Amino acid sequence: MVLGAGVGRSAGSISGKMMGDAVRSVLPILTVVAVLLGVWMLSVVPMNIHLAADQAQRDGVVVVPDTPIARQDVGAVALALRNPAVVPMTYVLDRPRLPGPQQVAAELWKTTFGVKVTSKKSLVYHGWVTLSATLLGFAIGTTLGIALAVGIVFSRTMDLSVMPWAIASQTIPILALAPMIIVMLGSLGIQGLLPKAIISAYLSFFPVVVGMVKGLRSPDGMQLDLLRTYHASASQGFWKLRLPASMPYLFASLKIGISAALVGAIVGELPTGARAGFGARMLVGDQYGQPLVTWAALFAAAITAAVLVGIFSLAERASLKRMGMVR
Amino acid sequence: MMALVAIIVIWGIGWTMNLALARSGHRSAGWAAPLIFGLTLLLVWEVGVRLGDVSPIILPPPSAIAVTFMASLPILWADFAQTILKGALTGYVLGAVAAFAVAVMVDRSEFLTRGVLPVGAFMAALPIVGTAPIFVKWLGSDWPSKAAVVGVMVFFPILVNTVAGLRDTSAMQRDLMRTYGAGYWPSLFKLRVPAAMPFVFNGLKIATTLALIGAIVAEFFGSPTVGMGFRISTSVGQLALDLVWAEIVVAALAGSAFYGAMAMIEKRLTFWHPSQRK
Questions:
Q1: pLDDT confidence of residue A4
Q2: Quick check: B229 and B216 in contact, CB under 8 A?
Q3: Which of A23, A178, A278, B115 has the fewest CB atoms within 10 Å, i.e. is most exposed?
Q4: Where is the protein found, in the record's own terms (chain A) (predicted)?
């Protein structure tokens, strides 16, 4: 891959600096979040006004124009202006096209803390189903990825034959393999946690390989020469120089890997119509016309991803600080 | 047993060839070694499946996949046009243009920039593909809902990279533009946008894979009876795994071609950047 400038996969240092900036940018961040929430709040009215007008009419409120068909011809904003009384109702619909933020938050709260953890309605229960597959797969994928990266760095043959494929794999939508892996393992009699974990594993595997190879190769000639003057063996060079030097790259890939693993586990729940997990909740909400369920599952998944990435960011900062790699 | 022996023999031959190639240090090793490795894998797969009597509903041999691929070209093309050309490309262009416009607007304010960079980086790490059922509900099951999912998915990485890139000029360069009497727009187009290009292309390249993933996975949530995601999920249900693999080959080819095209445009436009110099 080209050594380009940028943020994302290939640039650990820039995103690291950005995390440092984030601490000093609380006010700007809050502003941006407030703007996003404001846009969301505003969009709720035009998205739901037709539904709300139908509902209001059933409840006996006078609505202009007075038939649903006539209302279809009126634009959302115009309808809201002509029926100001209906506007507040757009925020409290049971089955809104776009739920308000407070509805999503309430649903999240209710299904996380309001029901028993073992209940089929509890997001904690569904979250654990997805999270366990994610973590198991991530552990497998990361371990194999680091092992392969070590092999690639020490064996020229492996470097030549495997590395181009590892890089090419990043341009391929390997997530498309997910449904097949589920069915393939299903017909072998393997069900439940493991197929999803395998999808998570191969999604987190390739970023870790590519990042770790870059990291293990990051010591420059001067540092390698120094170790040679110390008469260090190859394994000493690995443990004392290459492995510590690769840590920033490892953490950058771990953060990409864990969010990829979570997406993998969620998508792995879709094709078989799994009954538990975030993906299953999204499907259920979608098929049974319960948008709040879908939205709550979506946000729960987003929060889970944020917490996982956040944990790795903290671990990254702590360990790099201890190692004296201040960035 | 036979299959195991055959696999070990083939693997040994391939690996020995690559060992020799690596040791010789010949120039051709750069492309020959991965090719040999790939062919070895394919051969192991083919021989293992045939001699090991693996059922084709678990793993079809590569030759069967190739036959299916050639026989179902019209289906594959229709799916490709629906998912990649309509869904992924439209969404990619929309998302990229929107991200670029927002980045230029945000860039005028240091305050907003400091807010947008971390929030955008955070959003880029979220499982946005999960919004697919919502967009399918809003925009129907045809390709516009896929384009919307793709647009949102590619928006954040491109936004973050463009905003970061637009800041990537030195005080000296900006002072030079000022001595030329260049105002905001000339210095934007003549200095900062070109300087941002390496960053922008990093975002655009990351987004190529995201676009394909978004378009294919969104079809798992609802689609017309055409499209790569639709074909994959229904063929898996019918245990027609050779067709699924053919679709995956198409996805792999499309992904590499898309990424390659962006890398080529990048090479043309950012020839001055150290990472592109020979």
A1: 45
A2: yes
A3: A23
A4: Cell membrane
Residues 6+ apart with CB under 8 A from A286: A294, B133, B136, B137, B221, B222
Q: Which residues contact A268 (CB under 8 A, 6 or more apart)?
A: A133, A178, A181, A182, A195, A196, A199, A200, A274, A279
Q: Does B234 touch chain A (CB under 8 A)?
A: no
Q: Are B263 and A305 an interchain contact pair (Cβ–Cβ within 8 Å)?
A: no
Question: CB of A279 within 8 A of CB of A268?
Answer: yes
**Per-state percent for chain B, helix, strand, coil, to nearest 5:** 80, 0, 20
**What is the rounded CA–CA span in Å between residue B243 and residue B254?**
16
Interface probe for B, chosen from A1, A172, A253, A309 (most Cβ of B below 10 Å), is A172
Q: What is the pLDDT of residue A3?
A: 39
For residue A138, pLDDT beyond 90: yes
DSSP, collapsed to helix, strand or coil, labels residue A190 as coil
**Residue B27 phi/psi, 5° resolution?**
-60, -35
CA quadruple B166, B168, B172, B173: dihedral sign: negative
d(CA A11, CA A252): 8
Contact A294 B59 (CB under 8 A): no
Which stretches of chain A are DSSP H helices? 12-24, 26-58, 68-72, 76-82, 101-113, 123-154, 156-169, 178-187, 193-216, 221-229, 234-237, 243-268, 278-287, 291-322
Residues 6+ apart with CB under 8 A from A74: A65, A82
Separation of alpha carbons B249 and B277, rounded Å:
33
Residues in chain B with pLDDT values less than 70: 277-278
Q: What are the φ and ψ backbone dihedral angles of A11, each rounded to 5 degrees?
A: -125, 90
Q: What is the pTM of this model?
A: 0.85
CA distances from B202 to A31, A260, B189 (A): 27, 19, 19
Calculate helix-pair angle for A278-287, A243-268, nearest 10 degrees. 30
Give dist(CA B162, CA B103) in Å, integer: 6
Q: Rounded to an integer, what is the distance from CA A229 to the centroid of its chain?
A: 46
CB contact under 8 A, B111 and A15: no
pLDDT tens-place string over residues B42-74: 988 888 888 888 888 788 899 999 999 999 999
Interface test with A, best of B24, B41, B134 (most A CBs within 10 A): B134
Contact B182, B190 (CB under 8 A): yes
Distance CA B17, CA B26 (A): 13
Distance CA B132, CA B149 (A): 6
ipTM of the complex: 0.82
Domains of chain A with bracketed CATH: 18-96 (no CATH), 123-322 (1.10.3720.10)
Q: Give pLDDT tens digits for B201-233.
A: 989 998 998 899 899 988 888 788 888 988 988
- Going B200 to A246 to A1 to A178, the CA torsion angle's sign is negative
Residue with tokens 């569904």: A126
